[in-house]
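Ticket #4471: structure export looks truncated?
Reporter: QA, pipeline team
Priority: medium

Steps to reproduce: submit the single chain below to the structure queue and open the exported record.
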Amino acid sequence: MQSLTFKALLFFAGAFFSVLSSASAHNEPATSNSPANCPPPPAPTGLTVTAVTATSISISWSAASGPFFQVAAVDLTTSFTYPVMAGSSNQANITGLQPGHVHGIYVRVSKCAEGEFGDASYTEGTTGIIIIDMVGGFQEGGCTPNTPFSGNQHLLCVKKSTFVTSPFNNESKGRITFDGTGCTFGFAYTEQAGAVPKLTVVPLTMTGPFNFQQVGTGMVKCTYGSSPLQQIELFNVSPQEMTATDAKAFIKFSEAFSMAGGHYAYCTRCGEGDGKGRSSDEDGTAVALTNEESPILVSPNPFTEYTRIQYSVAVPTLVNIQLYDAIGRLVHTVQPNTLVEAGEYTATVQGSSLPKGSYFAVVQKGDQHQVISLVKQE
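Actual output as written to the record:
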């Protein structure tokens, strides 16, 4: 199927280029730059993707002669064709692309401004995925899902976040296990001036193919499965009441989730006396949480050669530290998932090979998830 798709796109690109060439033809007397004296050169060589962002792909190539080019890009994920670009160099930056999509890119060159273009070279590039919302996570810890719940529907409560974009605070959290895997996720309630209040569910950690889909400003669906054709809906979250200070919503579990022995645990932020990591059980009794999140120290920040991340754990805990760049791509693993004993620890981020810019260190301590913004300088 991929081969047929590629051939179809290649034919389409050729036809598209052909239309452009026909449109530029004319009957003016031949000059030194006319098509009669400017035969089409061979296809460019060394066509390479040199850089990507979430919405752009940069490319470069080599051509034996002729600086004039045409670039056509096709979104292979959606079959959308972008307008053809033209210029006079051996590189181009294709912008306005969709994040996380695979793009087919065709490049043709000509020796002259009015000359005929030769055959196209082809390459593919994938734009980055914007996962800042996932990396940003939630600012306040202290809320660890520890209250079990069984049934088909549960009323949860979320205090309004004082931040309207990630990273959020005043969050509630939930944790599910299904098919031997697990996923921890957070609930945030936000309201921008003049906008409709919004309940957002953000996945924090997962060990299986869990997928979250936001439907409008309210409902969020969670499915399980690596293939879109084989995904099982586990639950959906829909808001029931939104006030000036908090929101109430129902989390509704599917029959497949219940029959497969799925398990759900939660903690909530509404109705708390101190707002410091307490949850409520079904009769409203406060339940103290046992694994308060300790602060993480980073020094120096900004940094040049290195920076140190200092953290502590009160009990033996699995700790994982990942470094992401500004558009959410994993740069490297600072500390792989490691079981550490109670105590204080230091992890070092080496900066000598990092380009200058903004980064995010994601520190996962058991069910706790903290994000630190880092700045690398020259």
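Status: closed, not a bug. The export was complete when the record was re-opened. Leaving a note from the reviewer for reference: The first strand starts at residue 45 and ends at 52.
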